[in-house]
Amino acid sequence: MNILFLLSLLLFPIFYLLIWRKRLPLKRLPPGSLGMPVIGQRLGFLWAMRANTPEKWISDRAKKYGPISKMSLFGKPTVLVHGQAANKLVFTSDGSTMSHRQTESMMRILGDRCLLELMGQDHTRVRKALASFLKPDSLKNYVGKMEEEMRLHLQMHWQGKQKVTVLPLMKTLTFNIICSLLFGVERGPRRDSFVRYFQQMMGGMWSIPVNLPFTRFNRSLKASAEVQRMWKQLINEKRIELENGASSHQDLITCLLSIHGEDDQESMSEDEIIHNLILIMVAGHDTSSILITFIIRILANDPSIRAAVLTEQEEIKRSKSSGELLTWEDLAKMKYTWRVAMETLRMIPPVFGGFRKTLEDIDYEGYRIPKGWQIFWATCMTHLDDNIFPEPSKFDPARFENPASIPPYCYIPFGGGPRICPGYEFAKIETLVTIHYLVTQFTWRLCCNDNSYRRDPTPVPNQGLPIQIVSKEGSAAI
Question: Where is heme bound in this sequence (predicted)?
Answer without folding.
Answer: 421
